[in-house]
Amino acid sequence: MPEQLWSLLPVLLLILAAEFVNGWTDAPNSIATVVSTRVLSPHQAVLMATILNAMGALSGTAVAATIGKGIVDPAIINTTTVAAAMVGIVLWSCLAYYMGGIPTSESHALVAGLAGAGLATAGPSVLLWEGWSKVFIGLLFSTFLGFFGGLVIMLLLYRIFYRSRPGTVRIIFGRLQVLSAAFMSFSHGSNDGQKFIGVFTLALVLGGVLPEFHVPLWVILLCAITMGIGTALGGWKIIRTMGMRLTKLEPVHGFAAETSAALVIEAASRLGIPLSTTHTIGTSIMGVGSIQRFSAVRWGVAGEIIVAWVLTFPACGLIAYLVARVIFYLS
């Protein structure tokens, strides 16, 4: 058993690198609004996100099972497939971050990377419809429920507090936004955190360390801690993009966006549906911002984010495919 684990170490390290990047470039989305509204300082928000992301990752394994068993057929891929997928994720996410602090979806990067590397390994038969159907459902969840959820919650809050003074509203939601930001961080861990737990477990199965797909507690803890470290180091460019450049937010807007996004993500997590937390909080912020007036959303910035979302699938899939083909050729 130890020898098998040591031989698998390079692949496992690549998975942890991708999990680190997930915490570094994706988890900041969960605290972008609470930092931009100045309800919490950046260091307070990062500490809260680090702890609650880890707690969320410990809250279940339904999403991990979907990623580990439902996207590509474990019976016809190998550890090279997994390694190539992780390379695609790390390269694409780092490129988007350094090119302008554009948030990418690690969820879409992961499934696209697995698909690309899987196609290079075994052809189209490697793809499993059961898992991909959940990916497409997650895409609808994150896009439409995120936007309209934020819009509806904001309308309700306007209706309830329309006679209240702005200062009173700011005080109330300055306190409530701490709770909504905590909920958002927890939900990020419950969905995004689980995805790489699923891949790590898949690699252990493919490497012969585990006889069947079953998520050990030590895998959950290791991946949760790795994501937490990435979050602690923080992707400040992404916090600025999502919390400050996209639209101007007050605590009430941040509360509405975070609550909407977290509810959607938690519902998906319990159903084993992998979705993009970046998509969900991004569309929620757009929904909340459009309530003020349509022009309150900086649609040029939104366009840059959407282009990055669209490009993530082909870019990560292609990188993973090419990396896998090169490894197979050299071996």
Overall description:
It is elongated, with a radius of gyration of 19 Å. With 331 residues, the chain is mainly α. The protein contains 14 helices and no strands. The mean pLDDT is 84.
Helix content: over 70%
Unreliable spans are none
Give the oligomeric state.
single chain
Head-to-tail CA distance between termini: 24 Å
Tell me the number of strands.
Answer: 0
Number of helices: 14
Average pLDDT: 84
Short description:
This protein is an all-alpha fold and 331 residues long. Helices cover 79% and strands 0% of the residues.
Spell out the blueprint of helices and strands.
Elements (H helix, E strand, L loop, with lengths): L1 H6 L1 H18 L5 H5 L5 H16 L4 H9 L8 H22 L5 H17 L6 H33 L4 H41 L10 H17 L2 H10 L5 H20 L6 H16 L6 H32 L1
Which descriptors would you attach to this protein?
single chain, 331 residues, mainly alpha, 14 helices, 79% helix
